[in-house]
Amino acid sequence: MATSLAPLGIVLSEDLPPAFAGFPIINADKSQWKKHAAKEREVFSKLFDDFKKWLVEKGGAELEYKVSPYWQQFSPFANICMYPEEIAFPLHVPDPPNWHRFDAFMRTEDGTFEIPRELENIPGKLVYFSMGSIGASELGLMRKLIGFLSNSPNRFIVSKGNWNLYTEANKDDF
Questions:
Q1: Does residue 108 fall inside a structural domain?
Q2: For the residues 71-84, what does the mean pLDDT come to?
Q3: CB burial readout 115-138, b (16+ within 10 A) else e
Q4: Containing domain of residue 152, as a range?
Q5: Are 93 and 161 in the same domain?
Q6: What integer best gives the mean pLDDT of the chain?
Q7: 17, exposed or middle or buried, with CB in 10 Å at 0-12, 13-18, 19+?
Q8: Considering the domain boundaries, does residue 149 fall inside one?
Q9: Is 121 left (phi over 0), alpha (psi -120 to 50) or beta?
Q10: pTM for this one?
Q11: Nearest-5° angle of CA 82, CA 85, CA 90?
């Protein structure tokens, strides 16, 4: 199991807000965390139950409801989280057992990168921006971000995830 999402998605603790909810940690109203978690469970319970049944029918392990989208079981041996130490939560809760955090991953590829001609003579710093495949699949979010970036004095290369994840029917939307 490997993830590049926030540690809130892997650490289940009453000392931390629910993942993906946007709640603060400092000076937080923890009663709101519990309300949100209960509502999330209410909304996703049918989907979870259907997925759990399907998985067991296919020979998969019995699942325990955790924070969505982490309905898979974590490895008892080793799990990887890519998240910079500066924005992780080491002061609030310990790392979960068998989890190893990395600040970043970098893949190497054959060849060299060349700045696209359209960006060569435009002023401003060149910034590579990626939210990965999951973030890029949120079309509304990506449109807002690209709109925001278009008002910057800098140049951007925006990665929209793995093209193979999208169908021929909707590829023009991406």
A1: no
A2: 75
A3: eeeeeeeeeeeeeeeebebebbee
A4: 117-173
A5: no
A6: 75
A7: buried
A8: yes
A9: alpha
A10: 0.51
A11: 110
161 occurs within a structural domain? yes
Q: State how far the alpha carbon of 38 is from the alpha carbons of 21, 34, 70, 100, 108, in Å.
A: 12, 6, 16, 29, 43
Nearest to 19, CA basis, from 69, 80, 89, 64: 69
Q: Which residue has the tokens 């993942």?
A: 19
Q: Across-strand partners of 79?
A: 99
Q: CA 165, CA 139: separation in Å to the nearest integer?
A: 14
For 89-105, how does the pLDDT look when each residue is reduced to its tens digit (9 = 90+)? 655 666 677 777 777 77
User: What does the CA dihedral 33, 36, 42, 43 come to, rounded to 10 degrees?
Assistant: -140
Which residue has tokens 């002061």? 91
pLDDT of residue 151: 92
For the stretch 122-160, pLDDT in tens is 888 988 887 766 666 777 888 888 899 989 999 888 877
68 and 15 share one domain:
yes
Is 42 within the bounds of a domain?
Answer: yes
> Is the torsion defined by CA of 113, 118, 121, 122 positive or negative?
negative
Q: With beta carbons less than 8 A apart as the criterion, state whether 85 and 7 touch.
A: no
